[in-house]
Design a protein that fits this description.
Number of domains: 1
CATH superfamily: P-loop containing nucleotide triphosphate hydrolases
Oligomer: single chain
Distance between the termini: 38 Å
Mean pLDDT: 92
CATH architecture: 3-Layer(aba) Sandwich
Shape: globular
Helix content: 25-40%
CATH topology: Rossmann fold
Largest sheet: 9 strands, mixed
Order of helices and strands: EHEEEEEHEHHEHE
Radius of gyration: 16 Å
CATH class: Alpha Beta
């Protein structure tokens, strides 16, 4: 197993911002991964998250606030808490992670928003297990309240913690 670095903090503290900053500090073409980027309506209302591939900047709709009256966003979506998760970006991300794992030039993989969904064996659960079994260095974003359950469930030994403190970003 490579080195596991966990960026942790409260909700809206800047974990994703720190993940992206760290990605840009790594040598070019040696890292890749995914960040969950907040999406807002034109009126400024929070709508959910897009999944952004760090190396290419490509984004896909990923998580949206659930609307029980609306037609499902995709047939292959699943609900969790107040959100609907789209499976298509998860499948694409998992395939990309397989590609990262087989690419000898990629030494570091970054993955945002590991938490309760993965604890229920959904979301990035399968990809996370593949990453943890690899020799790649990892950066994972985990909300402070989910840190111990995730570390315990996935058997993450001696992670390096990067604590995000007092950087709370407004939800907009």
């Amino acid at each position: 197993m490579g080195r596991v670095n966990i960026i942790t903090g409260e909700m809206n503290s800047g974990k994703t911002t720190e993940l992206i900053r760290l990605y840009h500090e790594l040598p070019v073409c040696t890292a890749d991964g995914f960040a969950s980027i907040k999406v807002f309506s034109e009126q400024g209302a929070f709508e959910g998250y897009d999944l952004k591939r760090l190396a290419t900047g490509e984004t896909l709709p990923f998580i949206r606030l659930s609307n029980p009256d609306a037609v499902p966003l995709q047939k292959d979506s699943f609900g969790f808490d107040r959100f609907t998760f789209l499976r298509e970006p998860l499948v694409a991300a998992e395939q990309a992670i397989r590609d990262f794992l087989s690419d000898p030039l990629i030494r570091t993989i970054l993955l945002d928003e590991i938490g309760p969904v993965e604890l229920q064996r959904k979301g990035f659960c399968r990809a996370l297990k593949m990453l943890l079994a690899s020799d790649k260095d990892l950066y994972l974003c985990i909300n402070r309240k989910n840190l111990d359950p995730v570390v315990n469930k996935f058997g993450i030994m001696a992670p390096r913690l990067i604590e995000i403190e007092d950087k709370t970003f407004p939800s907009r």
